[in-house]
Amino acid sequence: MTYTVTNGYSPRSYETILTECVQVVNEQFGTSYTSQSFTGTNLWKYLYATIQGLMTVENNIAELGVKLQDYIRTQNEELIIPTSSENGFTALLEREMGLIASFKPTESSSDAGQIHLAIDIDNTAEDYAEKKQQIFNLMAEHLGAGLFYNGTEQGTVTELNGQSFNYAFDLPTETNLKVKIQVRISENTNLFVETTNKIKEKFLANFAKAYRLGYDFEPQVYLCKDDLPFASEIKVTYQSNGSYSGEVLNSAYDEKIIITENNVEVEVIS
Known about the structure:
The protein is α/β, with parallel strands linked by helices. Helix content is about 35%, strand content about 25%.
């Protein structure tokens, strides 16, 4: 087996192991087999099962190496980014519960000791009460003591000594946007021009993948030349209040941008 930092352990192929076996046979018995002439001999029939067994073992070792590398990477990330930090705790929530969260930045001394945390969770789900308590338990376990937690979603956690502590977080504030996409077809292209519905699907897919709670809305980020290679110009604007704009929309930590299919308009210009 070979090892590289990039690829880890790489199991040998059947051909590689067979070539090495043929070389050993030739050295030990003074023969001059090649891999092709050795195949089909009685000794090959005996070694074939051994080679298959070796391949299985090496594949298992390679898989174990990948899992070990992943474990070490995960442990290193937890050491580098402690779960008591803002980044560490949001990563913990995403890892443990699949939830996206955002902290309000500390902007002045009056914010000291105040925790404002927004979590993107469906409060109408049947298991919401259970998940909410799980969030409070994680806050009690990983966030610092002596802090005041702000939010509409409130609860308590009882510690080992019997004391109860209050915890809270906020649900996102939703902001609905209308989006207008204008695509100009390049005069030099002979590529297939996609339909307006397909362009809309690509924009919404990119938005769903890249956007998260608290992010500023950057309209030009979610559709580019790589998505529409036939285009010479792609212009994305949005409307929240008033006229359409192509500028970055600054969002609060608890603000969640909502863009539905019915609120996306696509125009293809020849």
